[in-house]
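Thread: quick sanity check before group meeting

JM: Hey all, I'm pulling together slides for Thursday and realized we never actually wrote out the predicted structure for the chain we discussed last week. Dropping the sequence here so it's in one place. If anyone has concerns about the input, flag it before I start.
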Amino acid sequence: MKRSVWLLIAFFLLPWSLSAAARDDAKNSYLKKANQELQEWNTKVDKLQKRAEKAGARTRVELDQALKTVRENLAVFRQKVTEVQGSGENGWNTLGRRADDAFKDVKHAYWKAASFLEKDKHKEKP
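JM (edit): ok, ran it. Output follows.
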């Protein structure tokens, strides 16, 4: 009798524990990817900053402001990733979506900043 009770308990708890492990794996995978994205985009912004230093004066003013926006968006993304990291197993999905939205803002601001360099490059051509 005791054995059947334990089997019944294991039957109901095992799927729950497996799903918790799967959620932890998904969260850890998400955090690993997000941290890699942070590193890559910090590098991209640093490279863009170096290219900006060679730009014309007018472009440089616009680009400095655009890069400031990119860095602010990166800080928001970093904060959202930190929130995901500190979240429980049930709430991290919602926080992850918010972090994804912040990441989209980073990419949009970056490409907007990069477009200032493209405009400057075209101005230099005769």
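AS: nice. Residues 26-124 form a domain with the Four Helix Bundle (Hemerythrin (Met), subunit A) fold (CATH 1.20.120.330). The chain has three helices and no strands.
JM: adding both to the slides.
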